[in-house]
Amino acid sequence: MTPDREVSVAHGREGGGYTYLEDAATADVAFRATHTSLPGLFIAAADATMNVMIEDLDSIRPEVSRRIALENGSLEMLLYDFLQELIYYKDAEQLVLRVHDVSVENMNRGHLLRADARGETLNRARHRTRVDVKAVTLHDFSLARSAERWEALVILDV
Fold first, then answer.
1. What does the radius of gyration of the chain's CA atoms come to, in whole angstroms?
2. What is the pTM for the complete model shown?
3. What confidence score (pLDDT) does residue 16 get?
4. What is the C-alpha separation between 4 and 67, in angstroms, rounded?
5. Is residue 157 classed exposed, middle or buried when 0-12, 13-18 and 19+ CB atoms within 10 A define those classes?
6. What pLDDT does 9 receive?
7. Which long-range contacts does 2-6 make (Cβ < 8 Å, 24+ apart)?
8. What is the pLDDT of residue 24?
9. φ, ψ of residue 50 in degrees (nearest 5)
10. pLDDT averaged over consecutive 10-residue blocks of the chain (158 residues)?
């Protein structure tokens, strides 16, 4: 189900990607997303989450858009909320979305994320589906910055 290769961030964004981790979780799917920028890390994590559900991300047509705006005092929990929001759209509206633009602003009360996501209604005849992601888990969930890049570890409940 999960690729044994690193997958680059979509739409020519350089500096990051994601890798599925085979031994990190038993009944779930784990991935490590990396990027040189925080917005790029959010996009890489969104692509990794969607790629668990849809085999070919390029098959998702940009027919509808959703603006996502979230606030949280913790960057780690902001990433968690962001991925949960994408899962919500899949469950509530049957939308499969690709994230194209992300901004994260530091504010007095925490962090504000704004994102532009585009996609379409799930079409099982055209979208080759893999497994359904139910939720992001907090087990081993992490977001950290090193000298050169941002890195997140995410486990998805499938």
1. 14
2. 0.88
3. 81
4. 32
5. middle
6. 33
7. 2/29, 2/31, 2/52
8. 67
9. -65, -35
10. 38 68 78 95 96 96 98 97 98 97 92 97 94 96 95 96
CB-CB contact of 9 with 16 (8 Å): yes
Per-residue pLDDT at 26: 67
Starting from the edge strand earliest in sequence, which strands make up the sheet with 6-8, in order? 6-8, 16-21, 29-35, 150-157, 135-145
| Calpha distance 105→128 (Å, rounded) | 35
**Domain 6-157 of CATH type 3.60.21.10:** no
* Half-sphere exposure (Cβ direction) of 3: Cα atoms closer than 13 Å: 16
